[in-house]
Amino acid sequence: MGTCGETRARGWPMSVSGTVMGGARPDDARRHNRAAVLRRLHRDGPCTRAMLVTELGLNRSTIKSVVEELTLSGLVSERLPAQRSGAGRPSLLVLPRPHAAVVLAVDIRVDRVSTALIGLGGEILERLSWRLNERSRQPLEVLTKVIESARLLIDELGAPVRAAGVAVPGVVRNADGLVRQAPYLSWADVPLGEQLTAGLRMPVAVANDAELGALAEHTRGVARGASNVVFVVGDVGVGGGVISDGVALRGAYGYLGELGHMVVRPDGRECHCGYRGCWETEVCEAALLRALDLPPGTVRGELVAELRELAADPAAALARLAGFTRWLSIGLVNVVNMFAPELVVLGDLLVALPCSVLDAVSVEVRERSMIGRALGDTRVVRSVLGSDAKLIGAAELAFSPVLDAAAT
Ligand SMILES: [Zn+2]
Questions:
Q1: pLDDT at 242 over 60
Q2: Separation of 51 CA from ligand 1 center, angstroms?
Q3: Which among 17, 52, 270, 304 counts the fewest CB atoms within 10 Å?
Q4: Based on C-alpha coordinates, what's the Rg of the chain?
Q5: What's the gap in Å between 229 CA and the centre of ligand 1?
Q6: Domains, the chain, with CATH or none
Q7: What pTM does this model have?
């Protein structure tokens, strides 16, 4: 039986559990407990006080006072649940108030920029996107338009925005948001973080788009509850984000994630990075077009429609995409052997691959990789957040310090 797109949740995310502070000073404990409740509500949505007691391992009186403090701060509200369970006084439902903490999320792609205001709890409150061409892809053009777009969205919302997170398809220095290289945008050493911080007048964090896709899938997508996850995005290029033991791996300066430039075929095709045989030359959009005999430059919608049509005939899909399937499997076997994930999530264009192809890749990864055999159930699944994954990840990047500050 195939496992296409299937996944299972396995308990609460690591960073939400284990929140009890023993032996801490009262102020620290209070701040820690407020942050734990706020993060729980932000990531997993409304719940009763009784659920907070159980999930966070705090006693009833602590939860009562924490929720009352957060209510006074305007960050949460409480109401009676719509349906009562059992006799007696019902436990109040605690809800995050989306407008009480809002961040700006920006997803810069090769052909499009998406911006959104996202509220506490993860609700997208406002959004605006535009297409890019060769001229409008210049760093200054993008920067100016992002700032304009943010002003429009903030005016529309009428609520303050506390921070911004930005996803970029390239090698990004996390500390200051310097984009070292984004080959498909033709950007090199663009101080995007500094410029946006000055232009938007708020804290701005910039990160690689695949890293943020992994964060989004781990927080709100198909990888919720999994502790070890690799997110692979296949688009014009290929990148990856890795969650290990519940924490994002970042490497030196935050540069980890260039899985697409893993060399799988030394005498292979020329890559954008200047060398030959990188994995992305075999599993990118251009490789799919070649496999389906579609001309270079075919619009994305047409390629996706062709893949959907092909999915109706599993055997034909496997035959036509045999080479693509082989290279995707080879790369993922390497990735699984390196990072030992329980779950590999495929994003962007790879979501459109037919189920028969994904199942074949899953089997190959499980049987051929040492770690897949050792783990026994390493799964390869599709992203469920679709084209919003990186935008949602950018919001979560911005939210992390905002939630800490809100809890003080
Ligand atoms: Zn390369």
A1: yes
A2: 48
A3: 270
A4: 22
A5: 23
A6: 26-96 (1.10.10.10), 101-212+389-406 (3.30.420.40), 224-384 (3.30.420.40)
A7: 0.89
